[in-house]
């Protein structure tokens, strides 16, 4: 039962990731990533991490990807037409990447084939996550709050429109 | 775990197949009731707003206009379904479906009453009791932004795009205060499961009294999340030509409509469960009555909130967009954070 | 009962697909989305090991990865907005004014 669910949602995740690569318009790539995140949230539920699964939906799929979609809408991003790609990239790139994938899977994943994870084995209580965050990992938690402050300031400064050229032009025109 | 044998499904022992069939039956019953309820809430809104404006609402179709929703449904099905030529077809069709599916998804964790035994099956009056039920509702609220944003963008028209940008940014801003306002009751109850929160309010220890500030923040944020007056600028008929669903007709428009009313029902149910003790109330009378009374109390409280929605619609003017955003970020979020801090101090001191 | 290696294989596949998007795609936003895909793959590995070793730390680290991804997305998208405002295009190769002349 758990195996069927795992394969179903693993298939959805991989299909979403492949669709992300195939699509030419960024909005469809963004929505494919939302699908991948949804499928991964179910995988997290299978692994007993229910809090993380829903935080993935609320924060990652529901806030970060909404930000992506907003930016795509506001910038009116479309399909990017550029110079024709180099043939070397097409011929060498995909085989090398497949080789990398196979290497990764065989060297890092395969040694753990003996460990079997049952769905009910380990259920992470939300209270335990809170406990860990505010006791053992308190310093990283506070550091991330500073990180957010810096990020918000940086985003506002970078994305804000510059007002000076207009004012200078007005002053030059008035003179 | 044996495939066909008994296992724990939720709180009761039953076979996987039985659990699956039971959940399916519950889903179908809830779906049917919900869709009928949405139709009649829409009629109730028209009649109540009509009375507030010194006129009667629809009265022609059926006695007191009671068949009006049926007439509306037939109209929606028979109307021509347009897809604008320049629209992004896939997203244009996907957006209303997404809105409806997400709206209906949050009903799965809402408990209507305690346990009942019908036809020898002992089950809870809830489709599934997640340990993190409240997080599911917040997650669905977060994903609900996509319905609005994609619907407006895919229509490829000025008014739709403006409406969807405004609607989307309004929804993500008020999502924050919505979540923060619910943290107070969660701390008092000590659990994220909706059934656990209701059980923590037994014997009339309803959370409305200690969490009155959180209640008002929640109601305000919920009005903004469901895009209802006074926060309905994104689909303001007089200003943006119906905003993000300008270009939608017939069945797709009906789906957006449906999603809005189902969201209203969800919000009302959550407010009842988290602040008003769910289905608790004085039990009296014979055994049969005692079994039904919790459901009736729950429904009465939910109807009160729906009436509040309709009442506010008939009474308050609309916020301007910058007033709306300023209010959400500069007033509600600090207030909700203050509430979280005070509640945390009180709980820790206890 | 799902073997741990299946979860790790899925994580590796998602990571490689993320790398593929990062290297092969020509517009800034899709490149950025591929980075998020890579982070998601890594998150899955963390949660899988957390379950296998019955330790909470994997879940907490996923929490921090998500937090960092959020901050990175905010600042990165602000940079993209600034770049597009100057160059009017989202193409990755357009920001090439400092490149040495090919002669």
Question: What descriptive keywords fit this protein?
Answer:
heterotrimer; B: about 350 residues; 2 domains; two-stranded antiparallel ribbon; 10 helices; about 65% helix; C: about 100 residues; mainly alpha; about 75% helix
SSE layout and pairing:
The complex is a heterotrimer of chains A (175), B (350) and C (103).
Chain A: H1 2-22, H2 26-46, H3 50-75, H4 87-109, E1 116-117, H5 126-134, H6 138-159, H7 164-174
Chain B: E1 6-9, E2 12-15, H1 16-52, H2 68-78, H3 89-105, E3 115-118, E4 121-124, H4 133-154, H5 158-189, H6 194-199, H7 212-225, H8 250-275, H9 287-315, H10 321-349
Antiparallel strand pairs in B: 1-2, 3-4
Helix pairs in contact in B: 1-8, 1-9, 2-8, 3-4, 3-8, 4-5, 5-7, 5-10, 7-8, 7-10, 8-9
Chain C: E1 2-3, H1 4-24, H2 28-52, H3 57-87
Characterize the structure shown.
The complex is a heterotrimer of chains A (175), B (350) and C (103). Chain A has 175 residues and is an all-alpha fold. Chain A folds into 2 domains: 1-78 and 89-124, NADH-ubiquinone/plastoquinone oxidoreductase chain 6, subunit NuoJ (Four Helix Bundle (Hemerythrin (Met), subunit A)), CATH 1.20.120; 126-175. Chain A has helices spanning 2-22, 26-46, 50-75, 87-109, 126-134, 138-159, 164-174, and one strand at 116-117. In chain A, helix 1 (2-22) runs antiparallel to helix 2 (26-46) and helix 2 runs antiparallel to helix 3 (50-75). The N and C termini of chain B lie far apart (42 Å). Chain B has a two-stranded antiparallel sheet with strand order 1-2. Helix content of chain B is 64%, strand content 5%. With 350 residues, chain B is mainly α. Chain B has helices at residues 16-52, 68-78, 89-105, 133-154, 158-189, 194-199, 212-225, 250-275, 287-315, 321-349, and strands spanning 6-9, 12-15, 115-118, 121-124. The model of chain B is unreliable at 1-5 (pLDDT under 50). Chain B has 2 domains: 26-68; 79-349, no CATH class. Chain C has helices spanning 4-24, 28-52, 57-87; one strand spanning 2-3. The mean pLDDT of chain C is 89. Classes of the chains: A mainly alpha (175), B mainly alpha (350), C mainly alpha (103). Chains in contact: A-B, A-C. Chains A and C meet through helix 1, helix 2, helix 3, helix 4 and strand 1 of A and strand 1, helix 1, helix 2 and helix 3 of C. Strand 1 of chain A pairs antiparallel with strand 1 of chain C, so a sheet runs across the interface.
């Amino acid at each position: 039962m758990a195996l069927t669910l795992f394969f179903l949602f693993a298939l959805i995740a991989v299909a979403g990731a492949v669709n992300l690569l195939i699509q030419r318009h960024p909005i469809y790539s963004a929505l494919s990533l939302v699908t991948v995140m949804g499928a991964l949230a179910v995988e997290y539920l299978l692994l007993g991490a229910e809090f993380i699964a829903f935080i993935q939906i609320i924060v990652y799929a529901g806030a970060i990807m909404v930000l992506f979609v907003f930016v795509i809408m506001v910038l009116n991003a479309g399909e990017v037409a550029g110079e024709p790609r180099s043939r070397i990239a097409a011929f060498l790139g995909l085989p090398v990447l497949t080789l990398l994938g196979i290497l990764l899977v065989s060297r890092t994943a395969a040694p753990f084939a003996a460990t079997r994870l049952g769905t009910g084995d380990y259920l992470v209580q939300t209270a335990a996550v809170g406990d860990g965050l505010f006791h053992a990992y308190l310093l990283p938690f506070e550091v991330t709050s500073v990180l957010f402050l810096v990020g918000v300031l940086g985003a506002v400064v970078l994305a804000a429109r510059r007002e000076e050229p207009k004012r200078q032009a007005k002053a030059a025109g008035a003179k | 775990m044996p495939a066909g044998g008994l296992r724990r499904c939720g709180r009761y022992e039953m076979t996987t197949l039985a659990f699956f069939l039971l959940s399916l039956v519950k889903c179908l019953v809830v779906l049917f009731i919900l869709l009928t309820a949405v139709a009649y809430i829409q009629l109730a809104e028209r009649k109540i707003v009509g009375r507030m404006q010194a006129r009667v609402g629809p009265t022609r179709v059926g006695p007191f206009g009671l068949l009006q929703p049926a007439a509306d449904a037939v109209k929606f099905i028979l109307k021509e379904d347009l897809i604008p030529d320049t629209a992004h077809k896939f997203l244009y069709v996907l957006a209303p479906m997404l809105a409806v599916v997400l709206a209906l998804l949050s009903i799965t964790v809402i408990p209507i009453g305690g346990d009942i035994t019908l036809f020898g099956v002992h089950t809870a009056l809830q489709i599934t009791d997640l340990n993190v039920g409240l997080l599911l509702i917040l997650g669905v609220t977060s994903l609900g932004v996509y319905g609005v944003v994609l619907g407006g963008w895919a229509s490829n028209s000025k008014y739709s795009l403006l409406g969807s940008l405004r609607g989307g940014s309004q929804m993500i801003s008020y999502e924050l205060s919505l979540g923060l306002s619910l943290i107070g009751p969660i701390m008092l109850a000590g659990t994220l499961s909706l059934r656990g929160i209701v059980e923590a309010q037994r014997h009339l220890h309803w959370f409305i009294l200690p969490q009155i500030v959180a209640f008002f923040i929640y109601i305000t944020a919920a009005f903004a999340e469901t895009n209802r007056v006074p926060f309905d600028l994104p689909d303001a008929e007089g200003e943006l030509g119906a905003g993000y669903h300008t270009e939608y007709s017939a069945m797709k428009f009906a789906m957006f409509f449906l999603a809005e009313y189902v969201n209203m029902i969800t919000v009302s149910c959550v407010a009842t469960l988290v602040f008003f003790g769910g289905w608790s109330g004085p039990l009296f009378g014979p055994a049969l009555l005692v079994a039904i009374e919790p459901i009736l109390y729950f429904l009465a409280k939910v109807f009160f909130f729906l009436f509040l929605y309709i009442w506010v619609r008939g009474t308050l003017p609309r916020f301007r967009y910058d007033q709306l955003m300023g209010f959400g970020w500069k007033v509600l979020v600090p207030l909700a954070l203050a509430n979280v801090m005070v509640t945390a101090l009180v709980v820790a001191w206890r | 009962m799902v073997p741990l290696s299946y979860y790790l294989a899925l994580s590796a596949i998602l990571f490689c697909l993320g790398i593929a998007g990062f290297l092969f795609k020509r517009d800034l936003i899709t490149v950025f989305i591929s980075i998020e895909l890579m982070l998601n793959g890594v998150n899955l590995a963390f949660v899988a090991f957390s379950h296998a070793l019955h330790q909470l730390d994997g879940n907490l680290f996923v929490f921090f990865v998500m937090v960092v991804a959020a901050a990175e997305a905010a600042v990165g998208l602000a940079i993209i907005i600034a770049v597009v405002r100057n160059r009017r295009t989202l193409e990755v190769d357009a920001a090439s004014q400092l490149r040495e002349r090919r002669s």
